Amino acid sequence: MQNHEIYITDWGDFKLALPLAVKYQVGLEVQEFTDPHELESPDSLLVEIIKDTKVLAHMSMHGPFSDLIPASRDPLIRQVTHDRFKQASALAQQIRAQHLILHSGFVPKTYPSEMWLRNSLEFWTDLMTTTTFEGEIHVENVYEDSFVNLRELIDRVNQEFNQKRLTICLDIGHVNSNSSKSLDEWISGLGDRIRYVHLHNNGGSQDDHWRLDQGTIQISHMLDQLQSHAPGAVWTVETPVHDLEPSLLWLQDHGFLARP
């Protein structure tokens, strides 16, 4: 069984999660800058994060998402979304993140499929043209019922640049609670477009962010599928901090994470 590059999220408090990242020798996904207020005045927090995370070899960052819609009909909303994502990409570069996770902003039953794809393609192509972030940018699914439009978006943006500039962050909990399609379908349908994964469990109706050994997702089977279809993907445990260690121990016990 192959050991993967594994991260944990800090759930907005890197000081609590950092000791676990050090103990289990995993990467850390910083989520403080999902808060727009932190984006407005990031300096003191940024200095702390840069100083304290120097001990880690791997870093990622989750960008802002509240009320941000890349495919909006309204050009002003698209502009605000672009500005927030640019702020996030600059901060991700400063904390030496290798990965930046940004939401697709898809709102069900709001836009015709063709409009969503057209507006999204324009937005993400422009962002990838103007960003100075040197790491990988991943688009995360949230409320999508199907992966088809995301797959089309990723393929067309990368075709524009003739290289893999944009990839998928597959959030398995979001699929389990929001999609009528199975995780097997999502994973095989997106394949190696998946370069980052958020791991957590739930009961199938709410985005509960439970630990890996609780919920209706068959985690072992799903991870086996990811190893087959998206072998290069980073796996990130995205639970509240108090559930990170039980999930890391589960990964160790099932052979997915090496013991330090």
Give a written overview of the molecule:
- With 260 residues, the chain is α/β, with parallel strands linked by helices.
- It has one domain: Divalent-metal-dependent TIM barrel enzymes (TIM Barrel).
- 44% of the residues lie in helices and 15% in strands.
- Helix 9 (219-229) links the parallel strand 7 and strand 8 (234-237).
Provide a concise account of the structure shown:
The chain has 260 residues and is α/β, with parallel strands linked by helices.
Break the fold down into its secondary structure elements and pairings.
Blueprint: E1 6-9, H1 14-24, E2 27-30, H2 36-40, H3 43-52, E3 59-62, H4 75-94, E4 99-103, H5 113-130, E5 136-140, H6 148-161, E6 166-171, H7 172-178, H8 183-190, E7 194-199, H9 219-229, E8 234-237, H10 244-253
Parallel strand pairs: 1-2, 1-8, 2-3, 3-4, 4-5, 5-6, 6-7, 7-8
- Our estimate of the beta-strand percent is 5-15%
Number-wise, the strands total: 8
| Mass-distribution shape | globular
Class of secondary structure makeup: alpha/beta
Structure keywords:
TIM Barrel, eight-stranded parallel barrel, 10 helices, 260 residues, 15% strand, alpha/beta
